[in-house]
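note to self: dont lose this again. the chain is below, predicted strucutre after it. 210 aa total, dont forget to put it in the shared folder this time
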Amino acid sequence: MNISNSYMSPADVALSNFVKALALPVRICIVRFILENGNAVKRGMLSEIPYNRQTVNQHINELKHLDIIKSQIKDKETIYSVNESVFVKMSNQFLEMFEPVRKLNEEAETVFSKPKIKSKPGKKETAPTQTIGGYIREKRKAAGLSQACLARLMTVDRAWVSKIETDKQQMRPGKLRTLANALSVSADELREVYYQNKINDLAKEGSTGA
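---
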């Protein structure tokens, strides 16, 4: 079947370009690293990404050109951030592609209407409204740990733990595994909750600015 160019809308082209732009592991790594660090990364921090610096710089520039990543100068330092509005818009368009399938099969509604983390066997599913801080507080109490005790296990001060639990402190990538070990929870589970919260935050910011 031949499909004319008129069948492809500008939105389809934009979505296709967006998906292709992220179809490289190094670019996924860059975007994830920026989001993990509060969606504001100084140029010097890019050295922590496990790829050759020249390669990282090349892909950063290409992602900027595609408007997926933004940069600004603050206190004479270059700060990189993910373009939240583009991410939210493209994510919504991607989900809309499956709307015809949802209408043909009512069972598909739970799969395509609202993306969510799939629970692993024996794992308690986190409530959609629970923040990463609330999750950490819940797991700390379940483990019978005080904030001071958790701080000692992580070799940080108690104030840091308090800020984490009230969502006032951003965690660096290395801290996620350390925190998972201290709480005796799966590092993969903690990452899932962390990234889902990041996605939810981006969606809220996008809808607020719309």
